Amino acid sequence: MDKLKMSPAERLKDVHIKPIEQECLDRVFEYLINKGPKKDKEANGNHSEKIGPLDLAYTLQFLGCKPSKSDVNLIIWEVDDDLDGYVSRQEFLTMYKRCIDDKTGLEPRKLFNIVQFLMYDKKFKGRVTVEETLQILYVRHGRDKLDDEIKAIFGDDEKNNDGTEKEITYGQ
């Protein structure tokens, strides 16, 4: 079927997440739903297995940001298809697929950018190195575009002046 005649939902069915990306996405989703205060399953009902405003606010603070309540709510609203104020695993994966398939740059990317950074930051230390980004960048972009992607994230230098590997934070 011609891509122009396909609905966005039909197009997303053709977007495939590679196994290493799925593994990273699962790790990040679990991290995000457990980042905020402990969730009382009875009090939160179905929301205990979703990313909520407090989870996202705690994560952003950990990453060095000072988000307002409205900033956090906007990030969630951008991907919250069922408008319950939380991000389910399905909404999380849909957001990821939409962003990796987006050729126009028009998809909301606030949560995607956070998730991307956390996918690279395997140990959740708040910083990533070139080495940590290589696997995911290679899987997604291939060898041909790898150097360009690294340059876009880290700039021209992959090492600091003293020869140590360059690290960046989410804010950078």
Summarize the structure in words.
This protein has helices at residues 8-13, 19-35, 41-44, 53-62, 69-79, 89-101, 110-120, 130-154; strands spanning 127-129, 167-169. Helix 2 crosses helix 7 (110-120) and helix 4 crosses helix 5 (69-79). It has a single domain (16-169), classed as Orthogonal Bundle (Recoverin, domain 1), CATH 1.10.238. The radius of gyration is 17 Å and the shape is globular. 56% of the residues lie in helices and 3% in strands. With 172 residues, the protein is mainly alpha-helical.
**Mass-distribution shape:** globular
Strand order of the largest sheet: 1-2
Order of helices and strands: HHHHHHHEHE
CATH fold call: Recoverin, domain 1
- Poorly predicted runs are none
Computed structural class: mainly alpha
Largest β-sheet summary: 2 strands, antiparallel
CATH architecture, by name, is Orthogonal Bundle
Q: In total, how many domains does the architecture comprise? A: 1
Keywords:
172 residues, mainly alpha, Recoverin, domain 1, two-stranded antiparallel ribbon, 8 helices, 2 strands, 56% helix, globular, EF-hand-dom_pair, EF_hand_dom
SSE diagram, text form:
Blueprint: H1 8-13, H2 19-35, H3 41-44, H4 53-62, H5 69-79, H6 89-101, H7 110-120, E1 127-129, H8 130-154, E2 167-169
Antiparallel strand pairs: 1-2
Helix pairs in contact: 2-4, 2-7, 4-5
Compose a concise summary of this entry.
The protein is mainly α. The protein has a single domain, classed as Orthogonal Bundle (Recoverin, domain 1).
